[in-house]
Amino acid sequence: MKSQDIRKAYLQFFESKGHLIVPSAPIVLKDDPTLMFNNSGMAQFKEFFLGNGTPKSPRIADTQKCLRVSGKHNDLEDVGFDTYHHTMFEMLGNWSFGDYFKKEALAWAWEFLTEVLKLDKDRLYVSVFEGNPAENVPFDQEAFDIWKQYVSEDRIILGNKKDNFWEMGDQGPCGPCSEIHIDLRTDAERAAVSGRSLVNADHPQVVEIWNNVFMEFNRKADGSLEKLPAQHVDTGMGFERLCMAMQNVTSNYDTDVFTPLIAKVEEITGLKYTSNEVKNISEEQNKTNIAIRVIVDHVRAVAFAIADGQLPSNGGAGYVIRRILRRAIRYGFTFLNTKEPFINKLVSVLADQMGDFFPEIKSQQQLVTNVIREEESSFLRTLEQGLQLLDKVVAEASDKEIKGEKVFELYDTFGFPKDLTALILKEKGYSFNESEFDAELQKQKDRSRAASEVSTEDWQVLIPGNVETFVGYDQTENEVKITRIRKVDSKKDGVLYQIVLDNTPFYPEGGGQVGDKGTLVSANETIAIIDTKKENNLILHFAKQLPENVNATFMAKVNTDLRTSTSKNHSATHLMHLALRTVLGTHVEQKGSLVNPNYLRFDFSHFSKVTDEELRQVEASVNAQIEAQLQLGEYRNIPIQEALTKGAMALFGEKYGDTVRMIEFGDSKELCGGIHVKNTAEIWHFKIVSEGAVAAGIRRIEAITGEAVKDFFAQQENALASIKETLKNPQDTLKAVVSLQDENAKLKKQIEQLLKEKAKNLKGELASQLQEINGVKFLATQVDLNAEGAKDLAYELGNLGTNLFLVLATADEDKPMLTCYISKELVAEKNLNAGQVVRELGKYIQGGGGGQPFFATAGGKNVAGIQEALTKAVDFVK
Fold first, then answer.
1. Is 19 annotated as a binding residue?
2. What is the pTM of this model?
3. Is position 574 annotated in a ligand binding site?
4. At what angle do helices 612-627 and 560-583 cross, to 10 degrees?
5. Which residue of 76, 361, 668, 726 has the fewest C-beta atoms within 10 A of its own C-beta?
6. pLDDT tens digits for 501-529?
């Protein structure tokens, strides 16, 4: 049974049981501050389990793209070494929100596996929670009794809290779970050792395929449990593992989920992958297998993340994606001998394979390919730099063991992986101190953990029920009551309080727009709201203090100055999006944005730099729309299909409901939940201030509107006035500046010529100062030249003969510089290295540098250290 057919069979089965089939949520979570990525099937339904929202159906089924590479669920370092861990995987899930419970969930799981898919019942084992008296959670007798109807008791395993109690996090909904495991070993192996003994023992062929979680409790901040008001079912089945069971193989990578990708890697590299059925393979073949598994797994995670709008970067979720891709690149570089970008060529295979069910990978195929290719090229260059740095570390080593701190510096600063360093050092007959490396890594982790540590108390509910309403589209102030509060303490922000209101005019951060700020005002006090965010469908108002009387009635007041400036910038992004598609082409799609009171930032897909003329056209188009005084057209709660039919643009990577909000300004129509001006005339004017690259095929424009443009024009006017005044108010300012530039260029040429002549004159004077020390012609002195002049002088003296060791110091414009020249004969015979010399002497001028073995320079900031540096130079030839 092919993987596509297995997926369809699952969804059709649960549709027949009254479940609504919903699409996968994006793999990247944009509006959940507690998670970077969707790491489980239930992540998109958290608000329903918490009672903060109502699902469109009490029964839902789907297949969800999941990513587990950070935090509690971190499988990254296992991927490739075994046959069943993945970074990205599909989670088939069926959900009940206060509807059916254990009886139906377990019966349907068994029916689907044994009757629809016809898996061998003799290979299946089930587990139930054994109970935990310490937490007053009893043995799951109900699940045990249900399972006895389908399997013999010797196939029911009692599991502990680690294996059979599922929790969303340190706090929140949780409950006992019942798993189904399958034994895929041969008949002979099964006869020799019971599968029961291998359940939850990390055996590669005895694996969990289905987990039925029964959400009954809420975990509080103090660790205690309380009963949820409704019972829910949260189930998840590993799609890749199910395919393994159905296709009669013993490795996920031998299923048709991965074999097309593996075949492409084999074609590109000329190397062969051996299936899990082949035993007693060589160590070399095992390394090849691991590398290929790493690559075909990682390309799925990276490709889908990019398709969902997350570009590789140096921070946050983007850093995780970059890290996954770089892991794949280095495995190819080290074990498959791939020195050129090749992983991007797998994207077309992935699009053909999964595009029917996940259309985003097909529609974003070109962008994903371009971004991965650029990332590969960049990191391969980094690897080459790392190799050069490693050569220097080895050259400077005093023994055969490299310090762990040096290896960590390569890892931390240049992204050079530890295992690759170890491999290269081994080939050269060296090793490194791993415990020192681990100590440095642990220090970094501790610093990172301390910086991000957050302590969250339980909600104190003042008004029960799901009563919160957002009124911010129509009002900027209104009368409110506080419904719940909690305290949050973090190293980064200190103690803050999260406040939820019964109805709020404050817009929560989302869709690129920052959250509102403002105040809560009662008869006796004013509380500053410093930010507004959304979490699990609750709008959270952040404050540094709580009101003295939390039960009072307050007037919630949005800071309208900030709100107005932000709305101008937000509406301008819509107008610019339309302008970019008009000027550059309809291939342009929004890939990210930031809208705050000061400026707007807009990322979009485009294959080349936007020319100055094109930028002028975009500016002119946006300003024409502003001058046209286009009225805001706002459609609230419009069916999504109707909005799309009207021409609204939906953004990839966004999660939309059945009903949406559509914003219209003339020909600009977009699905958007943000705050906008009522008429484009309010924007006043639009000005682009920068354009540049973010990644391959992604450009970024930053722009300003309104008061910021007025300030910009005023600054430009003042700058022009200052220039004219400095130039003695010429009639033609531009002509005067060009004339000044021409004059400056002529003077620079004259100075360069004079310095060269000065260096030639110094040559004879310094030649007479050369001392002979141990057969070396030595000189270390300060000269009155600039850095370029010192270089010319060094080469002039170098032409005098062999065995020259020269250190020249300069202090042009109070910037100390050391220049070292060593005859090539000395470099070869006495193992002298100019780069090493300037690095050592550079310490005295509080600087550093490098270069080639025969010529190198070092800059610094301590002019007073020049004489000591020159004095110490003689130590290299003694």
1. no
2. 0.76
3. yes
4. 120
5. 726
6. 999 999 999 889 999 999 999 998 999 99
